[in-house]
Amino acid sequence: MPVELLDVVDEEDRPQFRATRERVHREYHIHRSVMFFVFDEEGRVFVNQRSATKEIYPGYWSIAFGGHVLAGESYDSAAEREVREETGLTARPRFITSFKKRTADERENVKVYAVVANGEPILPADEIERGKFVTLAELNEMLGRFDFLPETDTLLKILVEYTARSGR
Predict the structure, then answer these.
(1) CB 72 within 8 A of CB 6
(2) I want to staple 43 with a disulfide (CB 3.0 to 4.6 A). Which of 50, 96, 150, 168 is the partner?
């Protein structure tokens, strides 16, 4: 597996230096990532359960997909790459908003996108156990029953605002 290099950035998202993914996480550096919601034609959102072998939060549920922005890569290019890698879809991601993720495990500057599925998502088994399209009401019910990633509250606000605005 090739070494994954990331840009370490400051609070204003200006690149400072490059480091391996392992070093970035170990030393708690701020870095870039993308997240994206996947919708079906009816406006339902795809929720997914992380693989039990994931390094951080194994088995937790997520309302979005995502990944790191590689060193020298743009957010938009990373979003397109991650859509293909995480879901097998070729649909073009549309930028929604950005936020700063600051958890005990990770510090990321995140850009959030939306994708309308142009087929059934193909989930990589080493990344995702399972997933399904759900309505916001079904998602709300799931939130009370399952463990979701720490950034879910922030992403849920973005999701609700986006669906209200876009009619999704």
Answers:
(1) no
(2) 168
Strands (E) in the chain, as ranges, are 5-9, 15-20, 30-39, 45-50, 61-62, 65-68, 94-102, 107-116, 128-134
Q: What is the pLDDT of residues 102-139, one digit of tens each?
A: 988 899 999 999 999 988 899 998 889 999 999 999 99
pLDDT tens track for 39-69? 999 999 999 999 999 888 999 999 999 999 9
Rg, the chain, Cα only: 15
Tokens read off for 52: 């039990």
Global confidence as pTM: 0.94
Q: Helical H runs in the chain? A: 21-26, 75-87, 136-143, 152-166
- How far apart CA 103 and CA 116 sit, in angstroms, is 29
